[in-house]
Amino acid sequence: MIEAIIRKGAYFDSVKLMLVTQQVKSMPGIIEVGVVMGTDLNKDILARVNLLSDAAQACSPADLIIAVNAEDRNAFDAVIAKIDGFLNASTASGNHIAYKPKTLVGAMSAQPTSNLVIISTPGNFAKVEARKALNAGLHVMLFSDNMSLADEKELKELAQSKNLFVMGPDCGTSIINGTALCFANQVRRGNIGIVGASGTGMQEISTLIHKQGAGLSHAIGTGGRDLVSEIGGMTMLQGIRALNEDDSTEIMVLVSKPPADEVADKIFSYLEKNVTKPVVINFLGGKPGKSHPGRLEHVATLEEAALKAVQLARKTALAPLMTADEIGSLATRLKSKIGSNGKYLRGLFCGGTLNYEAIIVLEESLGGVYSNSPLDKKLQLQDPYKLTGNACIDLGDDVFTQGRAHPMIDPTLRSQMLTEQINQDDVAVILFDVVLGYGAHDAPANDVVDILKRHADKLATKVLIASICGTDEDPQHYEQTKAALENSGVIIAPSNRCAALIAGKLLA
């Protein structure tokens, strides 16, 4: 039986609803369940698993939808009771009620020594709250997105006039004085500092640095649009100045998708004239500036950025994580598994920068790769749910996250698309990332492992390749995650670059 319950005007945070869904989906007699707000995107997702009723279709984004496919009425009633229990759970702990400030003033009163605020509210409210925080003398990490460029510029100008930082909007990763904020990994302290307009780019670099035995002083997020013409790299330049003056930072790494040309030139000029410390620059797919060996080093990939930073810190050369011979040998061994109908690669990425780096690497061997964020706009997917040819998709793009949690938190959408690609006869290779760390799903491999078990008959003629962005100190346990995936037949590469190189070699 399929039935939906609609709760008009009952708003819940998308992360809470994802956690509720995860808690109840394995209850006895439950075939499929969705607990979501009534946004258009969520309706599309319900429709894809046959849970969208007429009543659910008529909902507004302010309405809660509880849609269930159950074996019988008893199972349906049981899951509804469990969902209601989770949604109505008190914040009480023992005999005490957890204090949750409802305003910035209340939060400042509760924690008067704090000097940084993380803001995660809808974009139309985020500017107001950020301005309040700046006027109160607080640095701002703006997790919120959907803010206009004019508002972003205004906030950053206000911040700089007060010698404060605005990291964001749409800033999901920072590490300040060893404290991981939002989506970040647990890495050791060290002498390498990062400034990045790329969340998963900073995560990949920081975790690879950690795996080489080195560590970070800080990782300052700027927000993904900081290097567009209208903003001019304000936060990146501010971060560069801060790290150049920071005694604990000896090496700097800059990471971003391609900046606007004039912004890149501004940053290169500032570095040449004002920065005395060695800097590694990884503007993925962007034009390189002039290199000065040992001082300004331009590299093409995230892996190279991490290894070059460690090399500069240790003054010792480092080998790549996999040699060309190792990649070629592995690809040759795996190629015999691909079925006669298999000819395409499909990449399913939670990390936008990991997706972008993979495309850069893949196009060297496969030519053009279709995407919702392609290198060539001619390869833009018309419908990001319908992959064609060799294609890589950024599942964290705004089109997928409006009204629902990011795929690093909620793997539901990626799981659905993984299932679809496994069942496509012409798909030979599936490439994906697994991102660990604070804020990410507590067991990101579990859904993948479950899907591979259910569709084992389809995997005999396909190769699955993944990289894990994480460390041995992350809460999800890197080695356990790696073992679970390998035991299910997934090839685990030591970096996103290596994973893409192997995948490209297979189909070249």
TrEMBL record:
Could you mention a single GO BP entry for this protein? tricarboxylic acid cycle
A single GO CC term for this protein reads:
succinate-CoA ligase complex (ADP-forming)
Query: Which named protein is this?
Result: FdrA family protein
Q: Provide the ATP-citrate synthase/succinyl-CoA ligase C-terminal domain boundaries.
A: 348-504
The GO terms describing molecular function are: succinate-CoA ligase (ADP-forming) activity; succinate-CoA ligase (GDP-forming) activity
Positions of the CoA-binding domain: 189-281
Which SUPFAM superfamilies does this UniProt record tie to the protein? Succinyl-CoA synthetase domains
Provide the species name. Serratia oryzae
